[in-house]
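Weekly structure sync, notes
Attendees: PL (lead), two postdocs, one rotation student
Agenda item 3: pending single-chain targets
PL asked that the sequence for the first pending target be pasted directly into the notes so everyone works from the same version. It is reproduced below exactly as submitted, 187 residues in total.
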Amino acid sequence: MRALARAVGTLWWVWLAFGIFWIAVAFVVLQFDQASITTVGVLIGFMFLFAGFQQLFIAVFADGWARWVLMIFGALLLIAAVLSFIEPKNTFAGVADILGFIFLLIGVFWTIEALAERAMNSLWWISLIAGIATVILGFWTAGQFFIDKSYLLLVFAGIWALFHGVTDLIRAFQIRAFAKALEQAAP
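Predicted structure, written out during the meeting:
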């Protein structure tokens, strides 16, 4: 178990890279003022693609039910990415229509993930706050009209990417600190 923890600790930079990527995506999404629907649909596809690969990568290091949940979410995100690239205009319209439900699912997943990490992550509550905030955004978004949802989609996709990026940056430095603590404690 200690060897596995050391191996994961040497990969702390992967979470750092993911965090930087998600913050860059948030910056790009939040800068759109008159972006075409196709561009936003493709961007959503890339967000699904990278989120899917990230979930599958994390699943490699998980065990038990957490591994299966991460693998299922990763596979669903990859399927969503493929569909997004096939019909980006329909992706934008479809995502705008179901935006509230998407944020509800993401918020519930982040909340469960935070509670599952409680024993090994002293800053688990940051993911919990992000999850609860995303659930609230999901309920609020569900009551909006389509045109409002289109604009909200851009803003909330940027906020989602920002939450994800900040959480990954924090997780990267926690993993790094944990690996250093293991090295110092090694006999």
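Discussion points:
- Residues 74 and 148 are 29 Å apart (CA to CA).
- The mean pLDDT is 83.
Action: rotation student to compare against the earlier draft before next sync.
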